[in-house]
Each structure stands twice: as structure tokens, then as C-alpha cells.
Design a protein that fits this description.
There is one protein chain. With 137 residues, the protein is an alpha/beta fold. It has one domain: STAS domain (Transcription Regulator spoIIAA, 2-Layer Sandwich). It contains 4 helices and 5 strands. The longest helix is centred in the last third of the chain and has 16 residues.
């Protein structure tokens, strides 16, 4: 069927220009997303690798909720986003949901090492006052 001149969204145009570097994108598997978990007494650090998009949010959300329930009150989850090149609205919504749930239970979600794209998305959505953001530079 003909396209009938339908315009593609800005995000679709950007994705079609991005090279895949010889392999297809993998989404939806926790193995492809979480690359490390470190734990202290009142703190859990989770390092993410890969895009934070709607298709792979469920396994990440499950991992974060599991860590959340294991923490005592006033516990902290540090989410290291250094390996996350892209975040979409689904990823942002998941981060907000986890943040709100933790805040209700007296716990804190800290975002760490945001790259330029992710930081710009957080800033454009005016979420810099919502999230606790740290950088190691």
C-alpha cells in the first residue's frame, strides 16, 4: 500500500539515520541491560547498558523494585546510566514511577553519570528538580 505522503516523526527519522554497527538492536532482555549490581548496607548501585526504551523497561523495573523492597527505610538506589545512549518516553515514565514509589516509602533514587542525550531529555522535561542527579567527572 502506498505511504500517501505520511510524515515520519522526528524520532523515526533519527533512528533510521543511526547505524546499527553490524548488529541489530537487542531489547527486552535483562541480560542485555543490567551489567552490574553492587550493594552496601543502605545502598544498591545498578549499572545499566543499552537503551532505556519502552520495550526493555519491564525487566529493568523488576530489578529496581526487587532492590527497592530489599532496602531498609532511608535506603538509596544509585542508577548508573553511563552506558545508556538513549532514553524514550517509556524509559522516562518508568524512572518517574520508581522514583515516586521509593519516595513514598522514604527511600531515594539517584541517577548517576548521565550522558549528553539522557541529560538533555531530563532537562527538557523539567525533571532536574525531581531526580537526584550526580555525575563523576
Amino acid at each position: 500500500m502506498a505511504d500517501l505522503g505520511r510524515r515520519r516523526s522526528r524520532a523515526d527519522r533519527r533512528r533510521s539515520r543511526q547505524p546499527h554497527k553490524g548488529k541489530e538492536r537487542r531489547r527486552g532482555s535483562l541480560r542485555d541491560v543490567a551489567i552490574g549490581v553492587g550493594q552496601g548496607e543502605n545502598c544498591v548501585e545498578i549499572k545499566l547498558q543499552n537503551e532505556l526504551v519502552a520495550e526493555n523497561c519491564q525487566p529493568i523495573k523488576e530489578k529496581l523494585l526487587k532492590a527497592h523492597f530489599q532496602l531498609p527505610i532511608s535506603g538509596v538506589i544509585i542508577l548508573d546510566l553511563q552506558g545508556v545512549p538513549y532514553v524514550d518516553s517509556g524509559g522516562t515514565a518508568m524512572l518517574l514511577e520508581i522514583h515516586e514509589r521509593m519516595k513514598r516509602n522514604g527511600k531515594t533514587l539517584v541517577l548517576k553519570n548521565l550522558n549528553e542525550h539522557v541529560a538533555r531529555v531530563i532537562e527538557m522535561l523539567n525533571l532536574t528538580t525531581v531526580f537526584d542527579i550526580h555525575s563523576e567527572k
